[in-house]
Amino acid sequence: MKLQYELTSQDFIDFNINFIETSPVMKRSLLIQRIMFPILLLASPATLSNVFDVPFGVLMTVFGVLAILWLAFYLKWFKYRIARKSEKLIKSGKVLGVVGPHELFVEQGVISDKTSADITRYETIEKVVESRTHIFIYVSQVMAYIVPKRLFVNPSDLDVFRDVLSTFNKATEN
Asked: Residue 169 pLDDT > 70, yes or no?
């Protein structure tokens, strides 16, 4: 099966966001970051009230509000930063061939991608992750082919592609 499509910077950003949301390591790391900072904030008033001679209740209120804001908005802020860093990476030219035209070939236990910068070829797929707008075909833990679903005009075409991928996965497991 051969697919021709154009990847945009938004597709690359969506891949990075999806990776953060689906990777067990990243999910655990985000959970720790999201919880530990508020705990430190809530532990700080006891020490700071003695050091700065500020009433404990005032500091607890201020740090409590900061902890709640952190819990509420950290994930959004983190995703925003990932999107900005991804944009910067694309503009720097360090990820040639990610944005632009792609030709993806999936056939007989081989998956390959031809871009303006490179041709890659793999004989194994680690996993296939599907989001609302994309299919990510992982060939390693952190590298995936990005296939936008907007490419498939008919839902039946998307189903055929899924079937081809599932056959490919079965072929590589043997």
From this structure: no
Q: What are phi and psi of 94, to 5 degrees?
A: -85, -10
Rounded Cα distance between 120 and 116, Å, is: 11
Residue 12 and residue 23: Cα distance in Å, rounded? 16
* pLDDT tens digits, one per residue of 37-46: 999 999 999 8
pTM reported for the whole predicted model: 0.81
Q: Let me know if 77 is exposed, middle or buried by CB neighbors in 10 A (0-12, 13-18, 19+).
A: exposed
Residue % of the chain over a pLDDT of 90: 64
Ranges of beta strands (E only) in 13-167 are 100-107, 110-115, 119-122, 127-130, 134-138, 144-148
CB 144 within 8 A of CB 138: yes
The alpha carbon of 113 is separated from its chain's Cα centroid by a whole number of angstroms, namely: 20
Domain locations in the chain as residue ranges: 2-9+97-173, 11-92
Mean predicted confidence (pLDDT) in 64-91: 94
Q: Give the CATH architecture of domain 2-9+97-173.
A: Roll (2.30)
CA distance 70 to 34: 7
